[in-house]
Specification:
- The chain is of the alpha/beta class and 445 residues long.
- It has one domain: TIM Barrel (Alpha-Beta Barrel), CATH 3.20.20.
- Helix content is 49%, strand content 11%.
- It is built from 18 helices and eight strands.
- Helix 3 packs across helix 5 and helix 7 packs across helix 10.
- The N terminus is likely disordered.
C-alpha cells in the first residue's frame, strides 16, 4: 500500500484545530475502489473523524516501498522489486484462499528481524494511522517470530514501542495538538500467542521445538504461550512498555483455545487484558471457548457468531446455541473487532459486503467496531472499512458515532480508568466538533 499523505496541520490561524479539521475534510480524493457514499458521510468526513483500530497486525501493515528497501538491505529475496510488481504477485486485491493470503507474511517477517526494521515499521504504521484519522491503535504481533539469539522479547517490544512513540511525539508537536484541541495519538501493544507453529516459523520457535522434540505438539504450544504471557507481564512492569493485551491467533480448526488456558490465566491474574481470534474460520464453539476458557474481553473477527450451520455435531440444537451465545456476547458487551475486507478475502462464502455479518451486529446493537486487520495485505484503512459499511448497511452519522464509541470505550487503554474516561470524552467531543463543522458547511444544514 502506498503511503498516505501526512496528516494535515492546516494554515496558521486563531484556531489550529478548526484549521486541521477543514484541511482534513478536503484532503485528497478517495481511492478508485472506494464505494459510492451518501452526501452526509463522504470520504473526507469519514477520514477526518477520530477513530480506533483495535485489530491491526504490524507484520501485515508495512508500506510496500519499506518492504522493498528493508529486503534490499538485508538480503531477503522478493518476487518483485517494485510496488506494482509486489501488488500484482503477492499483495493482491483478492485471494483464492487463506494460504495465498498468508504468503506475504513470510516476506514481511523475514525483513523484521532487527530493531531498526521493527522500529521503522512501527513508526510508519503510527503515521499511517494518524493520517487516516485513527487516534488510538492497538498494534498486535507475535514477538516470537522476530526473536533470535540475543535479540529477545524485551528488545523486540522496545523497538516497536520506540517507533510508535516517535510517531505519537511528532503528532503531539503539531500546532493542532500543541496549541489547539486536537487529541493526541495514543497506542497500545498486543502480543499474539499462536495456536499452531513449527520450527520453520522462526529461529526462536526452531529452538523451542528442538528443546522439546519428544513432547506432544499441544504441550509445546502450551509452553510457548505461557512463556509469552510471562514475558509480556514482566516487560510491561519492568520497562513501562504499553503492552495492553494478550491475543491468540492462528488456525482455529483442530487447535482449540483450551491448550492455551494457562497462559491466559496468567495474563488474567496480572490484569493484562485478553482478545482472541475466534469465529474467523471456525464455528460458534470457538467463540464460546475464547470467552469461557481464555477470559476474552474482546473477540477478533467473530464472524461466525450467528452461524448455526458452522456448529459441530456435539451441538444438539445449533439455532438455540447460537441465539444464547449471541445474547451472552451482547449482554456482557464483549466487543467484536470486525474486519470486513479481510473476511471477504479469506472466506469465499462472503460474496458481497452486504453479506457480511456486521450488518446483523448493527441491527442487534452488539458492541462491534471496525478494524483493518492488515493494512497492506488487505489494501485497506479504517476509513475504507467505514466507507464499505456505510455504503452496504446504510449507516447514518449516529451509527458511525456509536461504532466509533465502542472502539474507544472498549479499548485496552494503557492508563487508569479515570484517565481513560476523560480521554474518551475528549475524543467524542472532538468527533462532535468535526461533525458539526462538516454539517454547518452543508447547504440546508
Amino acid at each position: 500500500m502506498t503511503a498516505p499523505a501526512p496528516a494535515p496541520t492546516g494554515p496558521a490561524d486563531n484556531d489550529p484545530t478548526d484549521a486541521w479539521i477543514d484541511a482534513a475534510l478536503q484532503l485528497g480524493a478517495p481511492p478508485e475502489d472506494a464505494p459510492a457514499l451518501p452526501a452526509h458521510l463522504p470520504w473526507g468526513l469519514l477520514r477526518a473523524l477520530p477513530k480506533t483500530d483495535l485489530h491491526v497486525h504490524l507484520d501485515g501493515s508495512l508500506r510496500e516501498q519499506t518492504l522493498i528497501e528493508l529486503a534490499a538491505g538485508r538480503g531477503v529475496p522478493l518476487p518483485s522489486q517494485t510496488v506494482e510488481g509486489l501488488n500484482a504477485l503477492v499483495f493482491k486485491r483478492s485471494y483464492n484462499n487463506l494460504e495465498e493470503y498468508l504468503h506475504g507474511f513470510g516476506l514481511t517477517c523475514a525483513v523484521l528481524q532487527d530493531a531498526e526494521a521493527l522500529e521503522r515499521a512501527a513508526y510508519e504504521l503510527g503515521l499511517d494511522n494518524i493520517a487516516d484519522g485513527v487516534l488510538y491503535a492497538e498494534v498486535r504481533f507475535a514477538p516470537q517470530l522476530h526473536m533470535h539469539g540475543s535479540f529477545g522479547f524485551d528488545e523486540v517490544l522496545r523497538a516497536v514501542d520506540r517507533g510508535l512513540r516517535r510517531a505519537a511525539a511528532e503528532h503531539a508537536a503539531s500546532p493542532a495538538v500543541a496549541q489547539g484541541g486536537l487529541p493526541a495519538f495514543r497506542y497500545g501493544i498486543v502480543v499474539c500467542a499462536l495456536r499452531y507453529f513449527s520450527g520453520a516459523f522462526s529461529r526462536w520457535y526452531a529452538s523451542l521445538c528442538g528443546l522439546f522434540r519428544d513432547a506432544r505438539d499441544t504441550e509445546v504450544f502450551r509452553l510457548a504461550s505461557l512463556e509469552l504471557a510471562r514475558a509480556a507481564v514482566r516487560c510491561r512492569d519492568e520497562h513501562a512498555v504499553p503492552i495492553v493485551g494478550l491475543d491468540l491467533a492462528g488456525r482455529e480448526d483442530g487447535y482449540p483455545a483450551q491448550a492455551h488456558r494457562e497462559a491466559f490465566a496468567h495474563a488474567h491474574r496480572h490484569f493484562l487484558k485478553k482478545t482472541v481470534h475466534a469465529g474467523e474460520a471456525y464455528g460458534p464453539e470457538s467463540i464460546f471457548s475464547a470467552i469461557t476458557a481464555l477470559y476474552a474481553d474482546r473477540l477478533g473477527h467473530g464472524y461466525h457468531l450467528f452461524s448455526p450451520e458452522a456448529c459441530g455435531p456435539e451441538i444438539s440444537d445449533p439455532d438455540e446455541y447460537v441465539a444464547q451465545l449471541a445474547e451472552f456476547v451482547a449482554d456482557r458487551r464483549i466487543t467484536v473487532e470486525v474486519c470486513i475486507t479481510s473476511n471477504l478475502q479469506t472466506n469465499p462464502k462472503i460474496e458481497r459486503v452486504e453479506d457480511h455479518v456486521f450488518g446483523r451486529m448493527l441491527r442487534e446493537k452488539l458492541s462491534a467496531t471496525l478494524c483493518t486487520d492488515n493494512r497492506l495485505v488487505s489494501h485497506t484503512s479504517v476509513t475504507r472499512e467505514f466507507a464499505l459499511a456505510v455504503a452496504a448497511f446504510g449507516m447514518d452519522q449516529k451509527a458511525v458515532r456509536e461504532t466509533v464509541t465502542y472502539g474507544f470505550k472498549r479499548s485496552f487503554y494503557p492508563g487508569p480508568y479515570l484517565e481513560k474516561r476523560a480521554w474518551v470524552r475528549d475524543l467524542l467531543r472532538h468527533f462532535d466538533r468535526v461533525l458539526a463543522r462538516f454539517n454547518a458547511a452543508q447547504p440546508g444544514a
